[in-house]
Amino acid sequence: MTRVAVLYGGVSAEREVSLASGAQVVAALREAGFEVVPIEVGEDLAALLAALTPRPDAVFNALHGGGGEGGAIQGVLDWLGIPYTHSGVRASALAMDKTAAKTVFAAAGLPVPRGRLVGQEELARTDPLPLPYVIKPAAEGSSVGVEIVRCGDNRRSEIARTWRYGPMALVEEYIPGRELTVGVMGETPLAVTEIIAQAGAFYDYDSKYAAGGSRHVIPAGVHPDTYARALDMALAAHRALGCRGASRADFRYDDTAGEPGRLVLLEVNTQPGLTSTSLLPEQAAHRGIGFPALCAWMVEQATCRAG
């Protein structure tokens, strides 16, 4: 029997999401026949190293944000020589750094939103882009800290004053239209889902994780050319970053002038959520892959990237 350590929790702003993902993964892997060792990760690296002794056959990385998703824990596991799920150090670090990821995507010929990094003082002083625009942390996931500044909105100075996600914020053009996402397993894009947030809000943290916070339409009711293009772009982005295992690409689709419209890649998530409201398991189920089988596949794809 394969012994799998499941890492969950962590110390990032996405800790609660990771706790939920980890609990579901533990149950699914046990159902799939694995011996599972749950490990709740905190700030103490020595405690984590002790929990990984004796060494498991594989680690299921169910951490989100920060060190768990940005390459740090991947580097530790490479050093220990323990196979782990999802992407390695390079792909994880690139995907977590939204500015670096956009550079990679643009070099691969993928459309990305216009934008730039802005310091708090500049943001407090003036609008860095024509209204409306989006302000987001340069290295967070789950829509943590994301704000939309619209015409007539007077919140810009307050956002700048209370900004707590590093010295710089990423400011991007606001793209009207619809929210689409595509999960990738290995070399296979799964499906296109349209995400409709409740009450017309954007797809923020609460919309993602609160029960009833959003509605998922799968397959998305978009123009066939757009559907095919989204699948192709998700796989291209997965490859451009060097992702392994599963990833999920998020898009904005501007069809306000009719279809087919403008499809823009926002980011790639190398550690897609595995909660009861998460999109990747939903897309896998759409393709006939149950949650225990999805988690088992991830373990089977686990490798050590050292060297």
Summarize the topology.
Layout: E1 3-9, H1 15-31, E2 35-41, H2 45-51, E3 58-61, H3 66-69, H4 72-80, H5 89-96, H6 98-107, E4 115-119, H7 120-125, E5 133-137, E6 147-149, H8 156-161, E7 168-173, E8 178-185, E9 188-197, H9 205-209, E10 214-217, H10 224-241, E11 246-254, E12 262-269, H11 279-286, H12 291-300
Parallel strand pairs: 1-2, 1-3
Antiparallel strand pairs: 4-7, 5-6, 5-7, 8-9, 8-11, 9-10, 11-12
List keywords for this structure.
Dna Ligase, domain 1, alpha+beta, D-amino Acid Aminotransferase, Chain A, domain 1, four-stranded antiparallel sheet, 12 strands, Rossmann fold, five-stranded antiparallel sheet, 307 residues, globular, 12 helices
Condensed summary:
By secondary structure, the protein is α+β, with helices and mostly antiparallel strands.
Describe the structure.
- This protein starts with a strand and ends in a 7-residue tail after the last helix.
- 35% of the residues lie in helices and 25% in strands.
- It has twelve helices and twelve strands.
- The model has no long low-confidence stretch (mean pLDDT 91).
- Strand 8 and strand 9 (188-197) form a beta hairpin.
- The protein folds into three domains: 3-86 and 296-300, 3-Layer(aba) Sandwich (Rossmann fold), CATH 3.40.50.20; 95-111 and 176-293, D-amino Acid Aminotransferase, Chain A, domain 1 (2-Layer Sandwich), CATH 3.30.470.20; 115-173, Dna Ligase, domain 1 (2-Layer Sandwich), CATH 3.30.1490.20.
- With 307 residues, it is α+β, with helices and mostly antiparallel strands.
- Helix 1 crosses helix 12.
- The longest helix is centred in the last third of the chain and has 18 residues, at 224-241.
- The chain has a five-stranded antiparallel sheet. A four-stranded antiparallel sheet has the order 4-7-5-6. Strands 2-1-3 form a three-stranded parallel sheet, with helices on both faces.
